[in-house]
Design a protein that fits this description.
Belongs to the bacterial ribosomal protein bL32 family. The chain has about 60 residues and is an alpha+beta fold. Helices cover about 10% and strands about 15% of the residues. The radius of gyration is 23 Å and the shape is rod-shaped.
């Protein structure tokens, strides 16, 4: 099995890991109520509950 001959430097390791950071969630306004919602998620607003133009969760009340 192949084994590295020399240790990789810290800068080389850091360059490789430069794209491993977490990226913030993309939020979009709900077309019905305007609440910021992540993509492909039912609107969590208690009076809305829409997804893809349909009411998925009925409002309580």
């Amino acid at each position: 099995m192949a084994v590295p001959k020399r240790k990789h430097s810290n800068s080389r390791t850091g360059k490789r890991r430069s794209h491993d950071q977490l990226k913030p969630r993309q939020l979009h306004p709900c077309p019905k109520c305007g609440t910021l919602v992540p993509s492909h998620v039912i609107c969590p607003n208690e009076n809305c509950g829409h997804y893809m133009g349909r009411v998925v969760v009925e409002s309580q009340g």
